[in-house]
Specification:
294 residues, alpha+beta, Protein Transport Mog1p, Chain A, seven-stranded antiparallel sheet, six-stranded antiparallel sheet, 8 helices, 24% strand
């Protein structure tokens, strides 16, 4: 006879195993078996950090910098219709999936997942820990319909949603360009969107959450950078490093005017470093910083 204590242990173990199975769900379970006569052609292919460069040489760095785990690639064919290739990237955490998606976002669209971009021959979207790319090699009425039906089908099969990085909640909304919000935790991507220096003077790494956002009109764009560190001490060090290595003139000032007539500023709020670049007026800098630290 099994003792009550042992029964509880067995039930507990089963619950743990069930949770592990859900979190480690095979990516092929998120792909429809058939859409409008489109069926898988050949075997699914899988890639991880060790061989991702063999699959997308030149673009693998982006995914790996966001702690990419694995990807499945499946080709769908339907007689003479254009083939469709679907990729589902498992990014381990929702914030990483959102980060990859935020790299190329051009507008705000929530048709699929938690954010999507729809093109003539492609759909990309993110949902929970997954980043999904669907590409049609040509366009017919059937391939276009199937492109959207595949996106909708995958969206339904991913039954959970993930949370946006908490750092985003600190972004002031007035004059914000909403589709410009870009999340990252590798310093190289900051320089890709707004060049500061080749060195990692802000100590951005996997332990930090960083977000860059654009403000103002196209003719007078300025940028807000927020970086959240694990400790206030780490934020202190980054703040000091920024002033010493990028803008010594700041000193104890919140904002200064640069040689090109633009304004920059930097401040710190607890574990968060705040910096503003390329602002047309001092009030743009101080206004953003005050909204965040007050």
């Amino acid at each position: 006879m099994i003792k009550t204590k042992n029964i509880r242990f067995v039930i507990y173990s089963l619950l743990i195993l069930s949770a592990m199975n859900v979190s480690a769900q095979d990516l092929n379970a998120l792909l429809p078996d058939e859409i409008n006569g489109y069926k898988p052609a050949g075997k699914d292919t899988y890639y991880n950090q060790e061989n991702l460069f063999d699959y997308i040489n030149g673009g693998a760095e982006l995914f790996i910098s966001y702690n990419f785990d694995k990807v499945i690639s499946r080709t769908y064919k339907n007689n003479d219709e254009p083939k469709i290739v679907v990729e589902i990237f498992d990014m381990q955490e929702a914030k990483n999936a959102f980060g990859v998606f935020s790299h190329d976002r051009e507008g705000l669209d929530n048709t699929y997942g938690q954010g999507s971009e729809i093109y003539t021959d492609a759909i990309i979207f993110w949902k929970d820990r997954y980043y999904i790319s669907i590409l049609s090699y040509g366009e017919t009425d059937m391939s276009k319909k199937s492109l959207h039906d595949l996106a909708a089908g995958i969206d339904r099969l991913i039954t959970t949603e993930g949370k946006l990085p908490a750092i985003i909640t600190h972004i002031p909304q007035a004059d914000l360009v909403p589709e410009s919000i870009f999340y990252f935790h590798h310093y190289v991507w900051l320089n890709a969107f707004y060049y500061i220096t080749d060195k990692n003077i802000l100590n951005i790494d996997d332990s930090t959450d960083a977000v860059l956002a654009k403000y103002g009109e196209p003719s007078s764009r300025y940028y807000l950078l927020l970086v959240e560190y694990l400790t206030r001490e780490n934020a202190d060090k980054a703040h000091t490093s920024f002033i010493e290595n990028y803008a010594p003139e700041l000193g104890s000032n919140t904002a200064i005017q640069t040689e090109d007539g633009k304004w920059i500023g930097c401040s710190q709020y607890g574990k968060i470093l705040v910096a503003v670049f390329n602002a047309p007026a001092k009030e743009n800098v101080t206004g953003l910083i005050e909204k965040i630290i007050n």
